[in-house]
Structures are given as C-alpha cells and as structure tokens.
C-alpha cells in the first residue's frame, strides 16, 4: 500500500566549511521528526558536491569525540532531483547501473549551513525542480548569507547596524594599504570575518594593527570577501523568529542571552559553539528591561521581513548602553536540540519535534516560484 505519510527529503552535509555542523543538525532532526506523520528520505551532500543516499541513523551524524562526521560519497548510491513541474520523483543510481526511482518527494528540508546550501544556490535549484522546501527563498538566503549586503539592506530599511568596512578580493590584491587604513578608522579591537560563512568559522578578534593582515588572511581562507566590524561593547542577545501562518506577522520568542562562562574563549567562537558546551550557556529569557525586550522582538520581526525571509531565522543583537543594534540574521541557524534557536522555542512552549512539524507544514503551504 502507498504510504499516507508526507515524504520529506532531508538534505545535509554540503560543500562548505560547515559540513560537519550540518551533519550534526541532521542527527537532531532525524532523531526527533514525527515518523508517524513523515516518511524520511535522508540525502547527504559530500564535500565534493555529490548527492548520495545517506544512513537514516542519527548516531552516525552526531559530533562526538575529535572526528567530525562527514558524508562519504564512495560506493554510495547517487541521487538526482527532477527538473520541472511534471514530477517530484527522486532517482538513485550507481554509475553504470540502471537508475532506480525512489518515489515522489513532497517537501525538502535543507539542513545546510554556509555557501552552496544556505546562500540561495540550493534554493534556486529546488525552485527549478518545482519542489517545496523549508526556509527562505533565493533572495533572502543570498542576502542573509552575505554579511555585507545584509547590512546594506537593513540600513536601507532604517534598522540599526554597527560600524563596519568590507575588504574585497580585488582591493586586498591591489589596494591593501587603503583597506588596512579603513579598518584602522573603526578603532580597536575589531572582528575580522569571512563575509559569507557561519558558525564563527574563520573569525578573529584583533586588538593591534600589526595582527590585522594575518587575521584577514585567516578569513580569506574561507571567503575572498572579508568584513571587518568594530567591536561593540554590549550584551549578545538572540531572538528566534518563525513565519506566521495564513498571512499573520512573524512570531518571535522572548530574547535569550549568550553567556560565555569559559574565560578561555575571547568570544563565542566555533569551539565554544560545538565542542565546549559547558563553557557557554543560554540565559532565557534574557534579563532585560521590559521596553528593551519589546524592542528586540520588534526589531527581530522587522529584520525577518526586511530580508523577505520565510520559515525560520535567528536574529542576533547587541544591547548596549545607548541602544539595540542588529548584528546579523541566520536563515538556517543551528538546529540541533541544543542549538539556541530550537531551545528558545522549546522554552516558549513549542517542542523540538513540533517545531520541525511546523516548519515542514509551512513549506507545504507555500508555493514555489515567484511569490
């Protein structure tokens, strides 16, 4: 008999530096998704870009010990998506063998972080395939991935952002001294970041001019375009946003606060996020004045709409003595059960499994193409 369950393709892995983080996110979702309601088709994307059938085994994809999980394309059945509106049937094949039809997929849940997954490229492919998918569309994903253009859009909408400068690949090669001078004008310290990366990968805190060039090179190892932000003295506050149902406005949680308790971390870096959970806590709700809490939630919803986001997003803020600044928005935030986004919804009364269900159902209601 045909299954009456909705068929969900879960995509994870990918070509970015956040490959293992994506695998860990998939581990959480595979363990929690409502199997009575959804039939799962796990599809891994190797670092080299191949799409393959992946193990439906949460333990296989967890971050444990010192060896991060990764999708291995060797000897695995490769996967092809359909193109066009006539079919949503996914095909698997081994090179030289007859392809096998895996059946129709009703919705795609892309759990990819970083370039080639969270930046609009995958979203464009799914639009071409006519397949509904969870999360933001092409434009919002692309702008949300690029910290430079994100700030331009937010500032254009009148939202408060901090001082920054951008070093392009060509400028670093042809006008390096001008780039360094623009950074110095921000004052010290500064944070040097790959413009299109996440999970705090490639980020350096720089306190002295003589360390700046090396920090730029570290960031450029992940992205030839670098953004340098002035350090903001304030509290790091996060707010989770969920698309409203039936044209309702975006839903927001009470804000949470990232508290780095391990003094070995100069800031909330990659190690603190994924390998040193004891050194970081989420204070929720953040102890803020009532009017500041209301402002953060309003700004989170405005940021979500300014970028034309869909599905989910986490908006990060700095709360300073002089006001609230929007730091950035993540269109596919960390989504393990212990990540900040699901934790804030869990504490707001929406359990992890129910949050997954809500996101899938929102995607099923949303048409593909222009909207």
TrEMBL record:
GO annotation (BP), single: regulation of cell shape
InterPro entries: ATP-grasp, ATP_grasp_subdomain_1, D-Ala_lig_Van_CS, D_ala_D_ala, Dala_Dala_lig_C, Dala_Dala_lig_N, PreATP-grasp_dom_sf
Residues noted as binding Mg(2+) 1 in the record, renumbered to the chain: 316, 328
Residues that coordinate or bind Mg(2+) 2: 328, 330
Pfam families the UniProt entry points to: Dala_Dala_lig_C, Dala_Dala_lig_N
Pathway linked to the protein: Cell wall biogenesis; peptidoglycan biosynthesis; Glycan biosynthesis
Stated role: Cell wall formation.
Entry similarity comment: Belongs to the D-alanine--D-alanine ligase family.
Protein name (record): D-alanine--D-alanine ligase
Organism: Ruania alkalisoli
Gene for this chain: ddl
